[in-house]
Structure prediction request, 401 residues.
Amino acid sequence: MPSRNLTAAGIERIKPPRQGQCDYFDRGYPGLVMRVSYGGSRTWSYVFRLHGKLRRQTLGRWPGMSLAEARDKWRDAHKLVSQGESPMRRRPVAADSFAAVTVEWLKRDQAGNRTVADVKRVIERNAIPEWRDRLIGTIARRDVIELLDAVADRGAPITARRLHAYLHRLFRWSVGRGIIEANPMADLPKPGAEVKRDRVLTDAELAAVWKATEQLGWPFGPAIKLLILTGARRAEIGALRWSEIHGAEIRLEGFRTKNNEPHTIPLAAAAVEIIESLPRIGDGDIVFTVTGKTSISGWSKVKATLDVATTKTYGRALPNWRLHDLRRTCATGLQRLGASLQTIEAVLGHISGSRAGIVGVYQRHAFEAEKRQSLEAWARHLVSGNPAKVIPIKKARRGAQ
Prediction:
């Protein structure tokens, strides 16, 4: 095999062979070779012996990769071989950047998480701009603290706490995959304290919101009315499908609920009346849609419009309330009307609280009749203002069908 002290000018003077290919080894750089084919292409390779086997690694094509760049690549590969490691199996540096690892983590660890979109949004808005191309292994504990402090200092303490949780899991997953040696967030406390909301709308406030939904019109007006009547989550109603409505109830499969458990939502007569009055847009299965192809979105803008309308109906602005407070208001209202804790949790689709642990394993009663009775009473209270009491359902006699 030809061996010479390769130079940039000398490479240009090398003539292609009449047939086949010819290797030119770079003297002083053992194993670094330029392969010249009869067609004129020139490719850099590294030929080395590891564990008794002769191997060849392609480094790049000339002139895209210059002589100096090829020698730099050779140095990195030669060092790995001298340590008994194959350069052909080493991960590209770009694959270990924070952004690249995050993409892999979302794909492999978070694919089954129904809130993966929220996780992705929080990380992309807060961490990616700071650490995008940085090797994840170089991110230290102090870097994380400074990032979390910056998010909290801009007035977003809850986002900072959630970012803490997401990053902690990402780093822990990276350790398990062998991407990093240690989790820089091990035993790192969350910033501040997350304030739990306890806002419950009064009957007068809820009545004002109910009236204000009339001004919203299709599709958000009836959607928010269903949130009030059912206590369901925004995503459960916002992405409702016609195929999920069965007479006087909504049946959600596990992938549509937060806890991944199937959930049945009884529909009071008032809720059924709203659904029966809804238009069917397009040939699709989506209930609340403008295009017929996608579910409604832009809830924050709608909330702002609803606030303006509510201020007119109520006489003044409702203080510090969110759409999710309608769910808490429903639960509180059911409690006032006499519904049991187990029934309220069944209405909300909760599997914690009274249905957690060993109780949840052996207590499989679904409280379907109690849920329906409670929501009917809640609807009567909302529509007529009549504080109808929930009458406890008598247990069925043994053997009764």
